[in-house]
């Protein structure tokens, strides 16, 4: 497992971390949300002037830059995101594994996966939003994982081309759309990317793409057939691109996958188990249907 060496804490970092501690104390003890925004506005004000962002811890000695999205706020308050999915991720990965993280956001799963697969493995993190990618880059470098994580500023779909970004307020709810106007981002398929990078194995595919998840799996048919990776995909908003959960289940079954439904506070996911997948004794990966 890769272990990051924490740099000396600068006076500026001490100040912004103190602000974060103040925000945590206020959030824990004040019976209302009013007033929390003051801490966040001060933090954002200092960041715009070159001050470092305060850090939150997600386990295994890993830290992430605090940012006030739903993901960032949840990690700040709880120290984790989607506990069931996180437990599965940590249980199923092993040194040397190769992970594709589509919709990596600021890197919560990418960082945990990189620490789990170690120097002999690799994580390929796809993200479409440039400001989020900048935070993702900093999180990867801060944890000393830049040799294990490749960051790809592109989206995935069932076909290649370009798309625009459709925002919905919180960065975690942004999705691609095919429109003539807007900020364009390149779109690839998992199969095309794997061929271009000469990937010799893929052990896990994580997809959180705000409705494009089924289309992304369609663009991974060769990988699914050749490597039979474990797959975790979100089922929210599939109708945006004409998909359904039933259709996704049927599509994966042709490759011999069984499925387990995972429900979290914020999303519904399907865990697809490849043929002949045998979980370790006591595994949480049980009762696939």
Could you characterize what this model shows?
By secondary structure, this protein is α/β, with parallel strands linked by helices. The chain has 2 domains: 8-52, no CATH class; 59-65 and 77-273, Rossmann fold (3-Layer(aba) Sandwich), CATH 3.40.50.150. It contains 10 helices and 13 strands. The strands form 3 sheets. It has a 7-stranded mixed β-sheet with strand order 5-4-3-10-11-13-12, with helices on both faces. Helix 1 packs antiparallel against helix 2 (36-48). The protein is globular and about 55 Å long. The two termini are 33 Å apart. Mean pLDDT is 86; it is low at 1-7 and 279-283.
What's the arrangement of secondary structure elements?
Layout lengths: L10 H19 L6 H13 L6 E5 L2 E4 L4 H9 L4 H10 L5 E5 L5 H10 L4 E6 L2 H13 L6 E5 L1 E2 L4 E6 L8 E3 L6 E5 L1 H7 L7 E4 L5 H6 L2 H7 L2 E5 L10 H9 L4 E6 L4 E6 L16
Parallel strand pairs: 3-4, 3-10, 4-5, 6-9, 10-11
Antiparallel strand pairs: 1-2, 7-8, 7-9, 11-13, 12-13
Helix pairs in contact: 1-2
């Amino acid at each position: 497992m890769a272990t990051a060496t924490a740099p000396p804490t600068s006076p500026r970092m001490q100040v912004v971390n103190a602000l974060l501690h103040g925000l945590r104390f206020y959030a824990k003890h004040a019976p209302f949300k009013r007033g929390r925004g003051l801490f966040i506005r001060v933090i954002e004000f200092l960041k715009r002037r070159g001050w470092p962002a305060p850090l939150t811890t997600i386990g295994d000695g890993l830290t992430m830059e605090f940012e006030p999205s739903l993901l960032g706020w949840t990690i700040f308050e709880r120290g984790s995101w989607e506990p069931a999915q996180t437990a599965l991720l940590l249980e199923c990965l092993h040194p040397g594994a190769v992970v594709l993280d589509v919709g990596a956001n600021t890197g919560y799963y990418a960082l945990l996966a990189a620490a789990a697969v170690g120097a002999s493995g690799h994580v390929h993190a796809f993200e479409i939003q440039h400001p989020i990618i900048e935070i993702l880059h900093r999180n990867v470098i801060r944890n000393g994982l830049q040799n294990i994580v490749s960051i790809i500023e592109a989206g995935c779909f069932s076909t290649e081309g370009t798309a625009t970004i459709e925002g919905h307020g919180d960065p975690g709810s942004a999705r691609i759309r095919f429109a003539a106007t807007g900020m364009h981002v390149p779109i690839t398929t998992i199969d095309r990317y794997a061929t271009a990078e000469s990937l010799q194995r893929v052990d896990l595919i994580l997809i959180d793409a705000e409705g494009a998840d089924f289309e992304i799996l369609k663009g991974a048919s060769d990988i699914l057939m050749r490597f039979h990776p474990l797959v975790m995909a979100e089922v929210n908003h599939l109708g945006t691109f004409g998909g359904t959960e039933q259709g996704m289940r049927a599509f994966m079954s042709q490759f011999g996958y069984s499925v387990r439904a995972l429900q979290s506070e914020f999303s519904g996911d399907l865990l697809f188990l490849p043929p002949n997948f045998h979980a370790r004794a006591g595994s949480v990966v049980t009762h696939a249907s």
